[in-house]
Amino acid sequence: MPTIDEVDTMRDARDVDGLIRALADPDEFVRSQAALSLGTLADPRAKEPLERVKSEDPSASVREAAATAYKWVVGRLREIEAAR
């Protein structure tokens, strides 16, 4: 179970897989931070896990963080597509 600081370290290291695993952490603050970190990185691998968390997480704050992060990821993917 990562701490908030470890989530920040994963974000800085662009450890998308670690952040996706952190979405299942028992601590809702860790899950929220992981979701927002994934949104900041806007990696396509984060789209499906964020979509699941934004509708299924028991915590409203985590669902909200995942929904925000999901919008960031989708928006970035649209930008990439438009640039092609």
UniProtKB/TrEMBL annotation:
InterPro entries the UniProt entry points to: ARM-like, ARM-type_fold
Any matching Pfam family: HEAT_2
Protein name: HEAT repeat domain-containing protein
Source organism (scientific name): Methanoculleus marisnigri (strain ATCC 35101 / DSM 1498 / JR1)
